């Protein structure tokens, strides 16, 4: 069994079987050796470490048959090292590959997934628009018009992770004929496709988010996801990936707690380590409580997924709850480090900033709250 993370007080990792634990240990060692040492520098320069893509290939974790518990724990481990690199992996393997797995025909899966599994081709997922985030289901403005055996796409997308360098971008557009949302796999060299990097971000700076413009972008019918015919099909993918963000939030919390605990043991004031102060211990225990409660929630969520008893409200509640608790934990950790908490040298600053992005993407707290509220009351508060 691999070594437990510092904040795993209730030993949730022991729920992994021996084979799964070995995968976690291998991934954790690679992240510690390759990602953690370069994260602050690349975050500061807002640059993606492209040579690390080969490392993801060598890990062999994308596209493999595995439990949802293991998948979640790997998302946790990646966010524990760096939230940006966890997002890169989640967009590629969860959103992009998940779209093809869920909504593609067997022929499409055979055509695209092997190269994506090996990271020879990188994927992106283009749903959010400049004027449509939370209301994208009803307000999607990107259009698709059938023209013989081709489709013509027009519109704009925003905040699309990986899109500046992705080979395949899953674009969601509204069919002008039936007004239903459909999915298309657009190559980076498709005529009429343009992606431009979003600059001046204060969170997830390593992630290369892009604005996408589609101007009479030509897509073959063979590249339309054959089983994506309404937004309900899109929602199937979001249900899965939303739970992944909940796991990422726990990874960020664990990192923040670990950094704060180590600092408290080393930092001295008034002639003794600040870890001996009651108020510091109170902060640490509040952090650990948030970590433990959130970890218990996502572990149970994975068990429901593996049992086939997984519903929208399960992932929605987990995403809303864990990201809210994450915000508290990173704030308390920054507080404990005082002035040192606002410089990258002490590591916590990157997690504080990145937490803001995790709190918002894959559905805001308010939207996820209404998903759960609808499930428990039987009444929809959506307008």
From TrEMBL:
* Entry annotated with the keyword Oxidoreductase: yes
InterPro entries with a match to the protein in the record: ACX4-like (IPR045008), Acyl-CoA_DH_CS (IPR006089), Acyl-CoA_Oxase/DH_mid-dom (IPR006091), Acyl-CoA_Oxase/DH_mid-dom_sf (IPR046373), AcylCo_DH-like_C (IPR036250), AcylCo_DH/oxidase_C (IPR009075), AcylCoA_DH/ox_N (IPR013786), AcylCoA_DH/ox_N_sf (IPR037069)
Flavoprotein is among the record's keywords: yes
The UniProt entry, under Pfam families, shows: Acyl-CoA_dh_1, Acyl-CoA_dh_M, Acyl-CoA_dh_N
* SUPFAM superfamilies for the chain: Acyl-CoA dehydrogenase C-terminal domain-like, Acyl-CoA dehydrogenase NM domain-like
Q: Which residues form the Acyl-CoA dehydrogenase/oxidase N-terminal domain?
A: 18-118
Which cofactor(s) are needed, names only? FAD
Keywords recorded for this protein, A-Z: FAD, Flavoprotein, Oxidoreductase
The UniProt record lists the Acyl-CoA oxidase/dehydrogenase middle domain at 124-217
Organism name: Actinoplanes friuliensis DSM 7358
Q: Which family does it belong to?
A: Belongs to the acyl-CoA dehydrogenase family.
Q: Name one GO biological process term.
A: fatty acid beta-oxidation
Coiled coil ranges: none
This protein's name: Putative glutaryl-CoA dehydrogenase
Which GO molecular function terms does the record list?
Answer: acyl-CoA dehydrogenase activity; flavin adenine dinucleotide binding
Q: Which residues form the Acyl-CoA dehydrogenase/oxidase C-terminal domain?
A: 235-376
């Amino acid at each position: 069994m691999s070594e437990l993370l510092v904040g795993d007080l209730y030993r949730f990792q022991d729920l992994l079987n021996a084979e799964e634990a070995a995968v976690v240990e291998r991934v954790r060692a690679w992240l510690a050796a390759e990602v953690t040492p370069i994260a602050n520098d690349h975050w500061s320069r807002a640059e993606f470490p492209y040579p690390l893509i080969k490392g993801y290939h060598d890990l062999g974790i994308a596209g493999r048959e595995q439990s949802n518990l293991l998948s979640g724990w790997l998302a946790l481990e990646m966010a524990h090292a760096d939230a940006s690199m966890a997002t890169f992996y989640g967009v590629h393997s969860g959103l992009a590959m998940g779209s093809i797995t869920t909504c593609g025909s067997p022929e499409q899966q055979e055509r695209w997934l092997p190269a994506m599994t090996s990271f020879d081709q990188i994927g992106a997922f283009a749903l959010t628009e400049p004027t449509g985030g939370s209301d994208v289901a009803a307000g999607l403005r990107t259009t698709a018009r059938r023209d013989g055996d081709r489709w013509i796409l027009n519109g704009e997308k925003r905040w699309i992770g990986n899109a500046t360098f992705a080979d395949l971008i899953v674009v969601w557009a509204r069919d002008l004929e039936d007004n239903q949302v459909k999915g298309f796999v657009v190559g980076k060299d498709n005529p009429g496709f343009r992606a431009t990097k979003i600059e001046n971000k204060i969170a997830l700076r390593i992630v290369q988010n892009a604005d996408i413009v589609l101007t009479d972008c030509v897509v073959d019918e063979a590249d339309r996801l054959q089983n994506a015919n309404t937004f309900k099909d899109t929602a199937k993918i979001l249900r899965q990936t939303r739970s992944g963000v909940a796991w990422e939030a726990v990874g960020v919390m664990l990192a923040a707690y670990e950094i704060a605990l180590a600092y408290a043991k080393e930092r001295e004031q008034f002639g003794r380590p600040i870890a001996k102060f009651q108020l510091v211990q109170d902060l640490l225990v509040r952090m650990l409580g948030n970590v433990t409660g959130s970890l218990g929630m996502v572990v149970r969520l994975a068990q429901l997924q593996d049992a086939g008893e997984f519903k929208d409200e399960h992932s929605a509640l987990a995403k809303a709850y864990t990201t809210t608790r994450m915000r508290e934990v990173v704030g308390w950790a920054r507080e404990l480090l005082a002035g040192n908490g606002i410089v990258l040298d002490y590591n916590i600053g990157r997690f504080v900033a990145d937490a803001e992005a995790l709190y918002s993407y894959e559905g805001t707290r308010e939207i996820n709250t209404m998903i759960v509220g609808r499930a428990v009351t039987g009444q929809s508060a959506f307008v």
